Amino acid sequence: MIHIVFNEADVAVLKQAIELDETLQGEIIQVNDDLAVGPIENIHVGEGMEIRRNWWRDVLAGGDMDGALDKDEKNDLNTIANLVGIMRRNEEELLWIWAAQNKHDVCGYYWLLHYVKEFQGRVSILYLNNLPFLNEKGQVFYPTWLSEIPAKEFLKAKKLAREITLSEFEVDPDEWAKLCNENGGVRLLEGGKKLVSQDENFYDAELKKYVTADWQKASKIIHQFLSKAQHKTGDMFLLWRLKKMIAMELFDVQGKVGYMKDFEVKTKTLSAP
Question: pTM for this structure?
């Protein structure tokens, strides 16, 4: 059995669950890219892949993860190529895709279907869509991320595994193709597996709310956004958007605009007449 997850935090909790239940024993593979942001047109061919990689280089340039894309040995395409090779060589191998109800996981699921459709009948989905679980205090809650679920609750979650149907392998790629053609800079989850496209400046208006008349480090502004905003995204994407707004001279800034702890931002001081 091979498990696919879409977040680093999910790997750790799934490992703990495997220790509690040997029937879950298997390799855990993580898809790293956050496909809920950035260009995805022609993403399954070389030109589209390169456009996306160059976009990520621009997003990360000069920030806390500058150059990380080219230094990181993790490559999703290589990861999936290895996965496909394993599935082809061993016809008994099964694949479980774990996803919670968030845009990041659902985008990853759609992207992955393109590569595993030949294994229909051996690929299962565990989509924790609006399902109740118990937290560490025994209280009922509805997780948005797999990593929010205590390891012991995964034993209940495994019962939700079901084969991805032939119909889903036919219909879901059409939904992904539509999103790829729209090529919005941001994708949001409306419910179920329904995603909608938005412009890349979608988060700007909410991010602006946390810029005040007092100087604050960019890291604090981003942390407040991630703590309070209804729609969230990655901190590096938010740092990039904050820099874009600074370049448009929407805010006053002091310090070197680079790492999020190296510069401070406040609302623009009106010039005296």
Answer: 0.91
